[in-house]
Design goal:
- With 127 residues, the protein is an all-alpha fold.
- Helices cover 81% and strands 0% of the residues.
- The protein contains two helices and no strands.
- It is rod-shaped.
- The relative contact order is 0.03.
């Protein structure tokens, strides 16, 4: 008899038997273990799980930072828009005042020309 063959195995080599048994054990672990009983898994898998959780923590920290940056930029944009509106209002006030002062200046020129004409008339009458 060949030592690599067993009489009840039907001609399957020993290393293939071990592979099949390991595969069945892995399937049993995946299908039969409840979610809370992770103590059956090797330590390396637990370490990998902890590593992925810290990656998720970094990801959520990144999202929180991004949200804070977006809120701050929104506040700055709102402040800039407020300043633009206020500047527009001030410019309207200044232009209204300039227009009013321009009319006042025109009125003063007319009054000045009337006074000059009247003084010229009085001066010509006295001569």
């Amino acid at each position: 008899m060949n030592p690599s063959q067993d009489t009840g195995s039907g001609g399957i080599p020993e290393d293939r038997k071990l592979y099949v048994v390991d595969s069945i054990n892995d399937l049993n672990k995946l299908n039969l273990c409840p979610a809370g009983s992770q103590h059956l898994f090797p330590l390396e898998e637990k370490i990998l799980d902890i590593g992925t959780n810290s990656g998720n923590g970094n990801h959520s920290l990144f999202l929180v930072g991004l949200i804070i940056v977006l809120i701050v930029s929104l506040a700055l944009v709102s402040f800039v828009i407020f300043l633009i509106v206020q500047t527009g209002n001030k410019m309207e006030d200044v232009s209204r005042r300039l227009a009013a002062e321009g009319r006042d200046i025109d009125d003063l020129k007319k009054i000045n020309s009337i006074i000059v004409k009247r003084l010229n008339q009085l001066d010509s009458e006295q001569n």
